[in-house]
Fold:
Amino acid sequence: MATYFVGDVQGCHSELQQLLDLAQFDAQQDELWLTGDLVARGPQSLDVLRFVYSLGDRATTVLGNHDLNLLAVAAGHAHPKKKDKTENILTAPDRHELMSWLQNRPIMAEHPTLPVMMTHAGLSPQWDLATARHCAREVETLLRSDQGTWLLGHMYGEEPSHWDPRLTGLPRWRYIINSFTRMRFCRNDGSLEFKCKESPADKPAQLAPWFELRKADADEPHLVFGHWAALMGKCPLPKIKALDTGCVWGNQLTLWRWEDNAMFSLNCPVYSSGE
Structure:
């Protein structure tokens, strides 16, 4: 049995299947962990959802910002974005089953036996691991409750940008969701900044990648994340794997195998011109 981690698929179902074949993924024996953003700009988002759903317990995916937006659209709280190719999901006969399954996915996942965890965008530099776990469970519980649809309609916004454990209600939940699904750069005080989406080499001087500011404990698990295509899989910290390599923008889809540290990449066509 092998454990595979793959970056943002973004509706690139054919490319995902080719990459899994390249790595000799066995759906009966192996595990597939996905960094979120299963859907959006690629042409086969419905096929991706159906495939990951069909894997059952062999697949673990976390919620990304595009996944959450799809849930908000399906619930009637947001309008479809022009660049998203998710219309057929909203009219599919299994729409309700797929949306219910997606809404019940975690926002942070930890492997039960391996020292590795996964989120879509990373972990806030203002959190220790215990706080991150608590915040994840808090929002996951809310999304799966009767208030879940309400939260999907009120999660949008960029404030507060700074964590305070005294935060309550919507400001607290918005910060948690933004940290787990939208974060890239932070200001030097650790507060979130959302406008810059470039690579670290092109950033303004007052900003830093979240992973350079976060002080992780030495015994923390490895962390896998996606979301930040401009990194092209490059992260200087040995226990952090950046796996979004921009498949939907015409770059690569990337897969990492835990057991032997093997990396597999597949060149992809251009499906979208920007985020």
In short: The chain is about 30% helix and 15% strand. The chain has a mean pLDDT of 96. The first helix runs from residue 13 to 22.
